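Recall that a protein's primary structure is simply its ordered list of amino acids. Everything else, from secondary elements to tertiary packing, is in principle encoded there. The following example makes that idea concrete.
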Amino acid sequence: MSQVEETKFNDDLTELIETIFGKDKAAASNAAAACQSFIQSYPAYSQGYYVLGIFSYLNRRVGDATEMISQAFEIDPEIQEYGLALSGLNALAGKLNDALYFAKVGSVGESDPLLKTILPPELSNFVIASDRAAVNKHYIQALRFFDGHQYQDALTECELELKMDASHEPTLYLYARIFIAIADYGRAISVLQKIISDNPDCKTTVLVELSYALAQLGLSDQAQQYMQEVLKRSNISVEDGCYVLRVCELLPGGKDLAKQVWAILNESHLQDIKPYYEYPPSIDGKIRVGILSDKFCDGFEGQALLAQLKRMDRSVFDVYGYIQNINRDNITTAIQNETVFSRKVYDINDKTLALTMKRDGIDFVIDMCGIGPSQRIEFIASQPGVKRISWLAPGYGLGQPGIDYVLSDNASHQMLSSNSDETQKCLLLENTLFSMPVIEGYKDVTPLPALKNNYITFGTRLDLAALSNGDGELWARVLQAYPNAKLRINLGEVASDMSIVLINQIFEPLGVQDQIDLHIADSDDQYGAFYDQVDIALLSRNISVGNLFEAMWMGVPVVMHTAHALSTQLCRSAIHGIGHKNWASDDEDSFIQQVKKLANDISYLSELRAGLRDHLRDSALMDMNAFTMELMMMLGALMSDDTKA
């Protein structure tokens, strides 16, 4: 549209709005005809549908209003007022999930000041519209709290809603999801089983959530049964399929099940996805990198990303942030400040996000979502950007449609390259797979507990899935070799009766139950206090890098049995990065030997504890300059190859 055409369009739109919503009631009587005339004059534009929709709503034709504004949204989903209006209209109709979806869409769109003037207040605010609908108010409030990770408040609202309707399935499902979020898997299982009992045809996600909760408690056989029920259903959504893949990581023999799920997803959803747009490589000397992540928040991935962005050469790289996480904290803001531009995209549809990246001129999309809860697998399959790279993403992008490159390092390359799809390449970093900044605010390292106790204390965080599937027996071998030793297990903030029963069932038959010391997390644990009473940390296959790094920062050596499992590769990389490769054992016998080597030398343990924090500071794991330089050189080489092509 030329400047002259744009001026005429804006003048005509302003005249239309003044005609319909102005003081001249006689003119307003011809509103429908005026809107139709405007739409015929500008058929490719959305504003006429929106104006007609608002007029229909004010005349109590809610169905017509929803239809018209939906058409406007289809044409231009980035206009904020369309999302807000559809949120309000769906709330008034009692369609709360749709209302919440459009509320999120509206929150990240661009506002049009002229269209905003005619949006009724009750449609511009999801809460007001929900209140007017007078439907499940506590459930709505619980959804908002859950999205904000305010879990205790969300639990309270769910309980209030269930007092009014104990069988309200959406509230029961949300109730269970909250329990899973706070790791109270026993209560989650009870709620999910009630949903299935009341409604055997409940949505597939309920079965998957139940499988996940059972797997987390190490109840693998029961989890497998529900997995099989899921696979019997005719059409598994991508979201459910990705959740199943997460469950597979917790189950013995889950690798074969994961292959089956991948095949289903590819055949039913992913293989026929075509690119929405073409993305020619930049030719102005700039390399434009788009980070798509649900980890723009406080966690090891967010901290590693922030450390990288602070060191990237701004004269060569323009970095754009596409925020998939709903929660925000100081890391979110800090990352945004290090990008050219960042925007929330967690409820932007794939085509709109693809158009946004095209307008931003993105060369490389770095996917950090993978198969996590906030996955964008269908979007990545549409091949946004010139090339797509998987980094720090669950599943590592292996076999993921659309992923061209998987980042690896010397510790992970063998495993990742042997599992990569034939269309993918592993980019081998000479340094570590990621780098970490110094941990701020943690306690000082304490003296070795064994010097005072005269026995070794091993420590771990509760992982019933791993304990039930091999780690329990392996660690019992360690305790049997040291009858005076203790295994201190951090139960987290929620110590459910079911968890304690299952721990006893694992260790009692092995004759080491008296050596188990259960610890309920307190406020000091967030600053490393748990490890004040730990000499050697035993890490399960599902341990997070954050927990690994915390133990080492508190002076505690870590030993883990990796067995080249995909789920251990980030921890394996970190252990190699500090120069203690032997701590990551490839088989059970070498694991036992390494534990004994440490436990038998108290003097070395004490010396190691006192110096491990400084050793970390000087290691490759904290050499953020080297990591960022290597990554920039790698991207530059890839860009050069694509430009030549």
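The first strand starts at residue 287 and ends at 293. The mean pLDDT is 88.
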